[in-house]
Amino acid sequence: MEQEKKIKHIETLLKERRSLEDIAQDILDGAFGELDMERKDSLDRFLDFVYSKVQRGNPFTIHLAYPTMRMLDSELEAKVKELINKHLYPDIILPLLKFFTRNVHNSDTNLYIACLIENEDIIKAIYDTYLLFKKDIFETDKDKRTQNVRRMQQFLARIDTISASPLDAAARLKFILEFLALKQNVSHIYTLDDVKLSH
Questions:
Q1: What would the DSSP string read from start to end of 91-113?
Q2: pLDDT tens for residues 1-44?
Q3: Residue 148 and residue 154: Cα distance in Å, rounded?
Q4: Closest alpha carbon to 88 in 36, 35, 20
Q5: If exposure means fewest CB atoms within 10 Å of the residue's CB, which of 38, 51, 166, 172 is most exposed?
Q6: Phi and psi at residue 109, in whole multiples of 5°?
Q7: How high does pLDDT run on average in the chain?
Q8: All structural domains of the chain with their residue ranges
């Protein structure tokens, strides 16, 4: 119930006739005012809000292997895109990576959020994290192998190594990177050959 209220607060913020810079500052103030690891901060709630709006949207397919959705409200979607790519950057990077690495059971839906990403620095951060996880796949020590994924997921309780598998996490990010490469030109950051797990 409290979570729903906080998500409604984000929707109300986005409907206000204030500049997106001011709205972003309100979201960021909430993020740093709530540094309790057990609770979602306002950036996490912002992404939950965005996810819920996109989830109820229209199908958007640029390739059959990468089905995604778009928000029904194009004005709201434009605001969210600008917030993610401009006004909440760079603070949004870690919550995005956390969202992508935590979404273990339905990782295709990561494209709902990835579809909104255009900022090349955010894309570079996703690619760098992919490379980190890919390197961890070959770590022989089980705890060290899952350490970076667990840090990115930011779960308080020690999670099982299956949920923190660097191979699975790298595969989820690879899927996002392949989609982003179809959506926009990223060849100066990475190529599709660069995101092959076999290299």
A1: TTHHHHHHHHHH--TTGGGHHHH
A2: 565 555 668 888 898 889 999 999 988 887 655 544 445 688 99
A3: 10
A4: 20
A5: 38
A6: -75, -5
A7: 89
A8: 2-183
